[in-house]
Design brief:
This protein has about 260 residues and is α/β, with parallel strands linked by helices. The chain has a domain at about 70-250: NagB/RpiA/CoA transferase-like (Rossmann fold, 3-Layer(aba) Sandwich), CATH 3.40.50.10420. About 25% of the residues lie in helices and about 15% in strands. The protein contains four helices and 13 strands. The chain has helices spanning about 45-70, 70-90, 110-120, 190-195, and strands at about 95-100, 125-130, 135-140, 145-150, 155, 165-170, 175, 180, 200-205, 225-230, 235, 245, 250. It has a seven-stranded mixed β-sheet with strand order 3-2-1-6-9-10-11, sandwiched between helices.
Length: about 260
Amino acid sequence: MTRWNQEESPAPMTITTDKGNDGAVPASPPCSLHELRADGTPRVDPVQARDVARWRKAERERLLAERSALTVEYRAQQALAIAQALDRILASAPGTTVSVYWPIRAEPDLRPWMHALSQAGMRIALPVALALGQPLVFREWHPQARLARGLWKIPYPADGAKVTPDIVIAPLVGFDGGCYRLGYGGGFFDRTLATLSPKALAVGVGYPSAALRTIYPQPHDVPMDWIVTGSLPSVRRAAAPRIRHGTGDHSDKQREP
């Protein structure tokens, strides 16, 4: 069930208007360029950004505590349902490169699914965090891969070739109906998805209890194309990229679950 505590939510933005000499309110300001940054993205109100960051920190802690309290049996059931939903989305087409993840902190464990995809001929990758503030890189994984440990001791393929995934499976801490993902706060997946070329199909995965009314998206947040949460119906964002399997290119054919 989605939890929503209005008292803990960031304060809404205050909108003011300037009246002319005759008391009339202009329909719109004569120029809004002052509201944009040099790259054309909206400026962020620092007070609002601070409030959102505080709210997200509190929600992240709550959601992680709830996730850690889930039973092993429940997590395994949800992971199986997630894998089945991902099969319907991806259709397990040989030749497509899929980035999955090595589970930490009670995330859905998709390692059995990774093995099955590898045996079916799919190319599997794992994300690697090289440094704070930098995009992820992706290294090819196979069941016999030698693993090393990166930031936060997360395993990655030590000798795997660098690859560019067509599909990125991103674990989430929370999510909302707009397919925005709440992660751990480092911005790794947002930073990576914003710069991947060609654009990858992004799929956020988590548990049903991670649902939020909103994460209060900020200009740097990159929405997922799909949200998959086991026993809940998968949610697809409008205008998801279309994948031509085996090339990383976009096509007019989108595989539906």
